[in-house]
Amino acid sequence: MLPCLTGMCILQLVLTGFLAAGVETVTKGKVGQNLTLPCHYSTAQHGTTTTCWGQGNCPLSWCSATIVHTDAQLKIHGQSSKYHLLGDIHQGEMSLTIVNATENDSGTYCCRVEISGLFNDQKTNVQVVIEKDTEQGIRIHLSRDVGYMTKMHLSILLISYNELQQVMYTIPEYQ
What we know:
CATH topology of the largest domain: Immunoglobulin-like
Oligomer: single chain
Strand content: 35-45%
Mean pLDDT: 77
Order of helices and strands: HEEHEEEEEEEEEE
């Protein structure tokens, strides 16, 4: 192995650290739900600044396949019926909401906050996993108790997006 030249080693360590810097998170959701991808920065520390959300990992500058971005005056560009910045952007709340998520929304998203200075940008890569809700629908069960009194019970199980409701009805005795 070649000996390390002091300046080159420092440059290599600095560049490696800057290129690897960033936060990695995983956000999971179900088809049909709204999903919020986290991204925050301190406006008290950095003031208002330019930000972007894009698809794919954060590149060296800006965002790949930009979805939504803000300028230094916090004007939002690119919002659509699918993608929204719903937080208080004046307070550095840059979280992206995906409306009515589909399996096609799965993948990596990048939030980049431009901070003045060389290689100072705050980068957040969010891995999005959208799963099908396999338990949707209605199950109906009808039963009859035979004994001192005859009763009919109708049990309806409603299942939708991880919410489980069970309704039990007793049908009055019949002749």
